[in-house]
Amino acid sequence: MDLASHRFISYFEPLQAAHLCQIAVLESFAEETLVFDEGEAADFFYLVLAGAVEFSKRIENNKYQAIAIAKPDDFFGELGVLDGEPRSARAVAFGGSTLAKIGRQELIATLELAQGSSVLQMFNFIIKNLRDTTDQYVSQFVHKQKMVLVGEMVSTIIHDFKSPFTGIKLSSEMLKEMHPDEETQEWCELIQLQVQRMLGMAEEVLEFSRGNSTLSKKPINLIQTLQQFEKLNRVYFDAAKVDLVLRVTEVIVEADDNKILRVLQNLVGNAVEAFGGRGGRVEIIVTQSEEWAEISIYDNGPGIPSSIKDKLFEPFVTYGKRTGTGLGTAIAKSIVDAHKGKITYESDNEKGTTFYIRLPINIVESEQI
Length: 369
Ligand SMILES: Nc1ncnc2c1ncn2[C@@H]1O[C@H](COP(=O)(O)OP(=O)(O)OP(=O)(O)O)[C@@H](O)[C@H]1O
Ligand SMILES: [Mg+2]
Fold this sequence. Notes:
3 domains, binds adenosine-5'-triphosphate, alpha+beta, single chain, 9 helices, elongated, binds magnesium ion, 369 residues, 6-stranded antiparallel β-sheet, Helix Hairpins, 5-stranded mixed β-sheet, Heat Shock Protein 90, Jelly Rolls
């Protein structure tokens, strides 16, 4: 947009508007350039003409929390300019931004001569911005508090579960010793595996709530991971009348096996829950391209409710479940992201739902030399 038609300029009488256009300096910013940093002196006031500017506050160890975005026709930087305090956030331009900047003294001089109605319009916009930023900040804060709460709950659960889990493990080991037949051995191993998984799951929720998902990657064959998944869930699927079909060929990826199992568990678990006891069909297909291994998980259930479609992967988004926490898909996404992969989905109430997980294939060639 051009400067003369910017919202801020339109607040002023024609003569003052022309003066502002004259003293404003246009500046273009390359992608991801710093406009100003938190704590810097506030020398300029900015009008956005093209692109966008993101504001963020430093929270800890060079991590930043985004708090707002300014788009064309918005203005920013007025608070420090008006009260003389240092910048309270950093501003980074992206999307090929063009900004018009006006020096502090010049802006104050213009405002001193401006009509009350011009100043009032400017303040209306500033107040609206402050409200939006506060709302966003509060919802981020609430989200963080929820995470802390989940973390505390899970720590308690893990702690309290440890002794009954040890009991189950010891009992199944005794059973194994007392009954050396193959079938008992197999069932007891399954019991032990499941107990191990329960502990693993609780620990993963804990990691997720703390925001530090650590991977222990190694080359894995997806065919084995999926067979393991099927074995662990056979009893569960039979009870829920779920028909699981695997269509997998040998595909090796660098990944954390347990975490991939978690992704499958969360997504297939959702499909099973969506069948609501009526049973259904889940199909897992693995395909491979040069760069990616793709796991698609299809179910012929009722589809994802449209009211949550846009925010499905956000934590605490749940629908139609009495005991849903809304963390299943958020954890799945955090794991896929940690693998530098991609997760997407398609869903409608006639065809059902398909999740697509892409994992990069990085075969470590140096090991073969
Ligand atoms: N395959 C699916 N078919 C139909 N609805 C689905 C499917 N997958 C997810 N959903 C919907 O998306 C919501 C969010 O799923 P998510 O796994 O993130 O949380 P949840 O299952 O509600 O709780 P949690 O997984 O923490 O126990 C579910 O409540 C459900 O309504
Ligand atoms: Mg779930």
